[in-house]
Write a structure and sequence with these properties.
Blueprint lengths: L7 H6 L12 H9 L9 H4 L6 H6 L6 H6 L11 H10 L3 H107 L11 H59 L24 H30 L7 H55 L1 H14 L11 H62 L6 H4 L4
Length: 490
């Protein structure tokens, strides 16, 4: 254990050599201090005993070894105190002046603290009264502003409701006119839809059958004839659709604005009736720093006014368009009937040509399938032969692996070892030969499969063309609308 009064530095970091006497001579003690740390000089904090630094800061005295060393020159061993007690007494004691100064410092700090606290109490009381009056006045002004805001919102809500009712009536009228135009156009679009779908279906023909034949020419002509009759009707229909979209967009803006006004009215009315004693009030830290506003009172009022003006303009345009559509519906059907008959004749001729080509392809495909079957049987036999070589190869590998575990000199490269190695090589060569033959057979099979695929593809192309022309196209062309329905009457 460490002696009482000794320091960590003296005990552990730099232990002193054991003296011959309990109290060493003064000269020896002095020399020991001089030669204490020959390789470097300690800093001030390390040269002091192991004591808290607070006491040294209060005393403002930096103890050194020099006074002790000089005053110890005239002392004998009998007059000196033990080494450990002397060092402790010198480095841990304060003077009376230090004691008095510390007390005076505490008195002054206490008096200063009391004066500051008294001033703070007076200023705080005055500030609390001023802030309370300011808070009440600010809350009154805010409540008044909220009431004015609620009145403004109520006015604009009434204007929006009136304009929405007018816009709904005009939109319904234009929708009815649009439905009349759609019914007329739907009947005239029947032949056009059939012709376009026939062209679309024939675009699904594959490979070489994508021919610009007489059927396709007649279908294109039919489309042009029907479009020339429908152009004005479709143009006005697009205008009606666009105008309806504009009307609904304007109505949507009005309804959105009204919805926002209603939400703002509920919120501002609730805020207007909030008091300090109301339920539901709470703290929301940082809410005053959130500025989510996107308008000022002038832009707010102008926004609603612009929405109303836009709605009025759209209603006027919608009324004019209804008058134009009323005068548009006319009759055109004779040209479509004549072109319809010419297309049917072209379809009949093309179907006959495609059916003859399909029958010839089926004959060649049957012969190719037979040869593919024979080649597949050969490939299966080769694969079986390769699989049969697996167990002998595993046996040879296992024997070689087991013989690697022979101890020491028993690992002999004898004839058995050589024969096992040769056996592995022989089986590998056999497998490689069979695999090469398998690849050749597979290449041949691929060639046959490719030929079969081409024939099947060509056959599928012909079958697809027949299905499109005979089933889909001619199936749709069995009916044609009468003249009354083409002009929009039901």
């Amino acid at each position: 254990m460490e002696l009482v009064g000794s320091t960590l530095t003296a005990t552990y970091a730099h232990p002193r050599p054991t003296p011959t006497n309990f109290l060493p001579a003064i000269s020896t003690m002095a020399s020991s201090y001089k030669n204490r740390f020959p390789h470097y000089s300690l800093t001030h904090s390390l040269s002091l005993p192991w004591q808290p630094s607070t006491y040294y800061k209060v005393a403002a005295i930096t103890p050194t070894l020099a006074p002790f060393s000089k005053s110890s020159q005239g002392l004998t061993q009998s007059k000196m105190l033990p080494f450990v007690s002397n060092r402790t007494a010198l480095f841990t004691r304060y003077t009376p002046d230090d004691w008095y100064r510390s007390n005076l410092t505490n008195y002054k700090e206490s008096e200063t603290s009391r004066h500051s606290a008294e001033r703070l109490r007076v200023d705080t009381s005055r500030m609390i009264q001023d802030k309370d009056q300011q808070t009440r006045k600010t809350q009154t002004d805010t409540t008044k502003n909220l009431g004015e805001r609620v009145n403004d919102i109520v006015f604009w809500k009434s204007e929006l409701n009136h304009e929405i009712d007018e816009m709904i009536g005009e939109t319904n009228a234009l929708t009815d006119m649009k439905k009349r135009l759609e019914r007329a156009l739907a009947e005239t679009e029947g032949p056009l839809q059939v012709a376009q779908e026939c062209l679309l279906h024939r675009e699904k023909r594959m490979g070489i059958d994508l021919v610009h034949d007489d059927v396709e020419k007649q279908l294109l002509t039919e489309v042009d004839v029907i479009k020339s009759c429908q152009e004005r009707m479709k143009r006005h229909l697009y205008k009606a659709i666009a105008q309806l979209a504009s009307d609904r967009a304007a109505q949507h803006e009005l309804e959105k604005d009204l919805s926002d006004k209603q939400a703002a009215h509920r919120i501002d009315d609730k805020c207007h009736h909030l008091r300090n004693t109301s339920d539901g009030i709470s703290y929301y830290r940082g809410v005053e720093r959130v500025d989510a506003t996107i308008s000022v009172p002038e832009s707010w009022a102008k926004f609603t006014d612009d929405n109303i003006l836009r709605s009025q303009s759209e209603r006027a345009a919608s009324s004019k368009l209804r008058d134009d559509i009323e005068n548009l519906l006319v009759v055109t059907a004779n040209e479509m009937w004549n072109q319809f008959n010419r297309v049917n004749v072209a379809f009949t001729n093309r179907i006959s040509e495609t059916a003859d080509a399909k029958n010839k392809i089926q004959t060649h495909l049957a012969k190719t399938l037979q040869e593919i079957f024979q080649t597949e049987m050969t490939i299966a036999a080769i694969r079986k032969a390769i699989r049969d070589k697996g167990p002998p190869l595993k046996v040879a590998h296992t024997r070689l692996d087991e013989r690697t575990r022979r101890p020491n000199v028993e690992l002999c490269r004898d004839s058995t070892q050589l024969r096992l190695v040769n056996e592995v090589h022989e089986i590998d060569d056999t497998i490689q030969s069979l695999q090469q033959r398998l690849r050749d057979a597979e290449d041949t099979l691929q060639m046959l499969v490719h030929t079969k695929s081409n024939l099947e593809h060509d056959l599928a192309v012909k079958a697809n063309s027949l299905f499109i022309d005979q089933e889909k196209c001619m199936g749709m062309r069995k009916t044609f609308p009468n003249t009354l329905r083409l002009v929009g009457y039901t």
